[in-house]
Write a structure and sequence with these properties.
The chain has two domains: 151 residues, 3-Layer(aba) Sandwich (Alpha/beta knot), CATH 3.40.1280; 55 residues, Trp Operon Repressor, Chain A, CATH 1.10.1270. Helices cover 34% and strands 19% of the residues. The chain contains eight helices and nine strands. 27% of the residues are buried. The structure holds adenine. The site of adenine (ADE) has 12 residues, from β5. The site of adenine has 12 residues, from β5.
């Protein structure tokens, strides 16, 4: 998979890709991630990438021209499955969307800033709009990092244990069951006996029951789907 991230603040985005699982995925050539600084695509003398809103109103709007130049350059080099715009009024990211996107080959992610982008960018370039939740961030960069993390860890070969993404919360509309490790007894707080039974079908059943109970208690809405 290749991901091209278009941003006014590339430095804000880089560190999540320099550590842990995302870093390993890049090192293993399972995913390539490129950062494109919008200021490199402006013909403005002062490298401005935003301007005042037509019709008045507070907040600056990101110009269409640098975004067009950057996206058009990328599209000349290869075709893209999606041009994703990070925005609080997009569809809310969930595990299903992450699963879908993990199967794609080439993605562009556009990070908004200020009030957002000129609507014509959304009308003519963007194919999908994604929010990471019902709150407003200062820009799309942190959202893009969240989206990339959720997607990249699902690509086969990225996680050490192939099955571990399948047992994540939300994969089957259930939250994950409780997990334990050593010691077996810590200050009298004991690990459930069933986990030492060696009876793997029974352990699996216990985990399923626990996942169901936890979901019913914390996220009953998931059970309605
Ligand atoms: N940009 C600003 N707020 C955002 C959000 N909630 N999700 C994605 N991008 C954003």
């Amino acid at each position: 998979m290749r991901i091209d991230i278009i941003t006014a603040l590339p430095d804000l985005l880089k560190s999540p890709f320099q550590d842990s699982i995302l870093h390993r995925a890049i090192e293993a050539n399972i995913v390539e991630v490129y950062f494109h600084n919008l200021r490199d695509y402006t013909s403005d003398r002062y490298k401005n990438i935003d301007d005042y809103q037509f019709g008045g109103g507070s907040g600056m709007v990101m110009l269409i021209e640098p975004i067009d130049k950057c996206i058009s350059k990328l599209k000349k080099e290869r075709s893209y499955d999606e041009v994703i715009y990070m925005t609080p009024d997009g569809e809310t990211l969930n595990q299903g969307i992450a699963n879908q996107l993990s199967l794609k080959k080439n993605l562009i992610i556009l990070c908004g800033h200020y009030k957002g982008v000129d609507q014509r960018v959304r009308d003519h370039f963007v194919t999908r709009e994604i929010s990471i939740g019902d709150y407003v961030l200062s820009g799309g960069e942190l959202g893009a990092a969240v989206l990339c993390d959720a997607v990249i860890r699902l690509i086969p070969g990225v996680l050490g244990n192939e099955t571990s993404a399948l047992t994540d919360s939300f994969q089957d509309n259930l939250l994950a069951p409780p997990i334990y490790t050593r010691p077996r007894d810590y200050k009298g707080w004991k690990v459930p006996e069933i986990l030492f039974s060696g009876n793997f079908p029974e352990i699996e059943k216990w985990r399923e029951d626990q996942a169901y109970l936890r979901t019913k208690e914390r996220r009953p809405d998931l059970l309605d789907n």
